[in-house]
Amino acid sequence: MTTTARAQGATVWLTGLPSAGKTTIARLLGSRLKAEGHRVEVLDGDEIRRFLSAGLGFSREDRNTNVQRIGLVAEVLARNGVLAVVPVIAPYADSREAVAKRHEASKTPYIEVHVATPVEVCSERDVKGLYARQAAGQLTGLTGVDDPYEPPLDPALTLETHLQTPEQSAASVHALLTERGLA
Q1: 133-149 confidence digits (pLDDT tens)
Q2: Residue 148 region, left (φ>0) first, then alpha (ψ -120 to 50), else beta?
Q3: Which of 88, 94, 113, 156 has the fewest Cβ atoms nearer than 10 Å?
Q4: Whole-structure pTM over 0.85, yes or no?
């Protein structure tokens, strides 16, 4: 009987403001990891909200529920050998901490990456038109503008996406995964 080593999974949680570059970095990183033969799943926050968290609003409680649901899915995938790449705003430190503790309890690697793009840059990018809608009075509760965003105090990595390309940001995350023996 032969045995094969099970792939080491991990969760890479990319947190930051809307239009910070989280999803772009996650997709680039995911493509690179897949090309290297890793089992990878990108858990896009918008897709999760549309399907797994349909019906939730944007109150603090609903945002926390959404983050916990995503955290559970990521932890289960990672515990089973998948690299779960999670581009999600996750504005509250206590919600992210609960996700980290879930991973710690199952001895599953969790890497928090702060996509630290200034709100002015995010507003210029405005990928989904959220900042324009907020400025026009058509939207309230925009994270980082009129709703809080609590940046990580001690992330494993901070990406200043306004100072580097998305490819450079993804390469930085990949380098960290490699350094930790996860890629």
Answers
A1: 999 999 998 999 999 99
A2: beta
A3: 94
A4: yes
CA 2 to centroid of chain Cα atoms: 37
Task: Please report the beta strands in the chain, taking only residues with DSSP state E, as ranges in sequence order.
Answer: 10-16, 40-42, 83-87, 110-115, 157-159
Q: Which tens digit of pLDDT belongs to each residue from 64-96?
A: 999 999 999 999 999 999 999 999 999 999 999
Query: Which amino acid is it at 147?
Result: D
Q: How far apart are the first and last CA of the chain?
A: 27
- Asked if residue 96 lies in contact with residue 15, where contact means CB atoms within 8 angstroms, the answer is yes
DSSP per position, 103-127: HHHTT--EEEEEE---HHHHHHH-T
CA-to-CA distance for 50 and 112, rounded, in angstroms? Answer: 23
pLDDT of 45 reads 87
Helices (H) and strands (E) in the chain, counts: 7, 5
- pLDDT confidence band for 6 (50 / 70 / 90): low
Q: What residues pair up with 85 in beta bridges, in sequence order?
A: 12, 42
- Residue 73 parent element (H or E): helix 60-79
